[in-house]
Structure formats: C-alpha cells, structure tokens
C-alpha cells in the first residue's frame, strides 16, 4: 500500500508539473549571460521579446502581445535582469506594445518626427492605424535614446537604427560586440508585411552594410533565426517585385481584411502602402 501511495504521489506531482508548464505563457531562452529571448508561443502572433542586459541598466526590446492571461512579463524580466529595466518598442503594432503599462520606464528613439509627437506630459499617443487594432494606446516616455550612435548600458554598447519599411516607426538594435542584430518585424522566416518598398529595401541595405555573417539575427516572430544572407535575399525579392509587379500568389485574410500575398524566390509577403504595417 505504501508503494502504491508513493507511486500515486509521484504521478500526481508529475501531472501537476506538466499542467503548470503547459499553462506558462512565456518561455525563456538564454542566448548568453546577458541576453535572453522571451517567447510567447501561445500568442496569436508567436511573438519574441528580447532582454539586453548591461552592468548599469537593462533594455527590453518589445513587451509582448498583451494576450497573456497567465505569466507576468514584468516580474519575469526583473528576475532575469538584476538591473533597472527600460522598455523600447521595435514598432507600435499591437503585438509588440502589449503589457507596456507594466513598465514605468519606457524609451523612445530620439527621432525628430517622433519627438514632435510628444505632449507636454511626455506622452505619445499610438493611433489605431499604428497599432492595427481599434483602440489607442498612450505611452509615458521617461527615456530617450540616440539614433545611429552607440550608447552604453554599462560595459555593453548598443546602437539603435531607424529601419522603416514594415512600418514608418520601425527600429533595429545592433550589438557589435555581442554580434547580435535585433530586427523586430523587418525580417523573419514567414509572411512579411511591407508598407513601403523603397524604405524596406533601404533599411535592409543599411543592416547589410552594418553587420556581417558573424552576427546572430534575432527576429520578433518565428522559431527559426535568419542567416545574414537572408537579409539580401529579402531585399532582392522586393526589388524584383518592384520591377516586375507579378500577379499575386493568392488572397488571404489578414486582421479581418482580404490581402494579396506574393511569393518571390521563396519570400512570401503582403504589400499594402495604405496600411502602416
């Protein structure tokens, strides 16, 4: 009887553990001692956010979809960081600005057009056409980061580049010492959303010139990292589309709207200049 009781207890413990793991919203992947990928595999968009830690401060690149009913990303990030955390968004779509209210320190790149939108209360209002959902979002900005120049998180220098094309306010983080390129939604394995063909190609060209094949390219979606060569593959596909304007592969439903999907050299994408993807 004692043995049966012990077996029952162990089975109960295993089942409880499995249920808890299944219910966990966030999955943490350690890239190195100071860099973490936080996945939301259960989210509708399959998001990944990134925690970049220095000796004096840490930066969270995106705050997730906001769909989580279990799991507190702020609590998780604080437990990993060990330093004060600043939130920076790769862009303002709904699946990247969720959970933003949990972070008291939100940053904005020091881009003149964005700075002009800051009110006297240091808030920026994210409109529906920017978030892609029928509601606005207000971000209280406490920190401003420079563009196109390195700044120090404490024994860790990073740079922020303005890389539009997916959306007008898309940004990429470059860590030259760590050999990381955090590209947000500009590039990933999957269906790309293109707002501006010229800007998209220019942004990819800028990153191609900035890094090399030794960099790990980390996207905000998908379970497979990109290769350096994929950046130019995407650029060339968009250039070929711009030159030839082929017929769409098919139409698909995207956020409740029918959109034309194109596939060129294995790169699937939707191009719609009327939507600020």
UniProtKB/TrEMBL annotation:
Keyword Lipid metabolism on entry: no
Keywords tagged on the record: Hydrolase
SMART domains named among the record's database cross-references: Lactamase_B (SM00849)
Pfam families noted in UniProt: Lactamase_B (PF00753)
GO biological process, one term: antibiotic catabolic process
GO molecular function, one term: hydrolase activity
Domain (Metallo-beta-lactamase): residue spans on this chain: 46-221
Keyword Hydrolase appears in the UniProt entry: yes
Similarity comment text for this entry: Belongs to the metallo-beta-lactamase superfamily. Class-B beta-lactamase family.
PANTHER family reported in the protein's UniProt record: ACYL-COENZYME A THIOESTERASE MBLAC2, METALLO-BETA-LACTAMASE DOMAIN-CONTAINING
Protein name: Glyoxylase-like metal-dependent hydrolase (Beta-lactamase superfamily II)
Natural source organism: Ancylomarina subtilis
Taxonomic lineage of the native organism: Bacteria, Pseudomonadati, Bacteroidota, Bacteroidia, Marinilabiliales
């Amino acid at each position: 009887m004692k043995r049966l009781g012990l077996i029952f207890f162990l089975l109960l413990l295993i089942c409880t553990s499995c249920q808890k793991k299944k219910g966990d919203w966030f999955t943490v992947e350690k890239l190195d001692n100071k860099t973490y990928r936080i996945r939301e595999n259960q989210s509708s968009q399959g998001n990944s956010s990134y925690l970049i830690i220095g000796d004096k401060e840490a930066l969270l690149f995106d705050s997730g979809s906001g769909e989580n009913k279990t799991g507190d990303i702020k609590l998780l990030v604080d437990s990993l960081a060990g330093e004060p955390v600043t939130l920076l968004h790769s862009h303002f779509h709904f699946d990247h600005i969720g959970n933003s209210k949990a972070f008291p320190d939100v940053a904005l790149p020091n881009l003149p057009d964005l700075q002009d939108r800051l009110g006297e209360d240091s808030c920026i209002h994210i409109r529906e056409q920017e978030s892609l959902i029928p509601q606005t979002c207000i971000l209280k900005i406490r920190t401003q980061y420079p563009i196109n120049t390195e700044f120090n998180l404490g024994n860790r220098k990073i740079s922020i580049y303005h890389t539009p094309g997916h959306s007008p306010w898309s940004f990429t983080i470059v860590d030259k010492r760590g050999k990381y390129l955090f590209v947000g939604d500009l590039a990933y394995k999957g269906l790309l959303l293109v707002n501006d063909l010229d800007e998209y190609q220019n942004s990819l060209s800028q990153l191609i010139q900035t890094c090399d094949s030794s960099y790990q390219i980390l996207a905000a979606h998908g379970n497979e990292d990109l290769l350096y060569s994929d950046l130019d593959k995407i650029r060339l596909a968009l250039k070929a589309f711009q030159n030839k304007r082929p017929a769409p592969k098919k139409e698909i439903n995207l956020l409740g709207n029918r959109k034309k999907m194109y596939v060129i050299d294995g790169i699937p994408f939707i191009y719609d200049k009327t939507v600020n993807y």
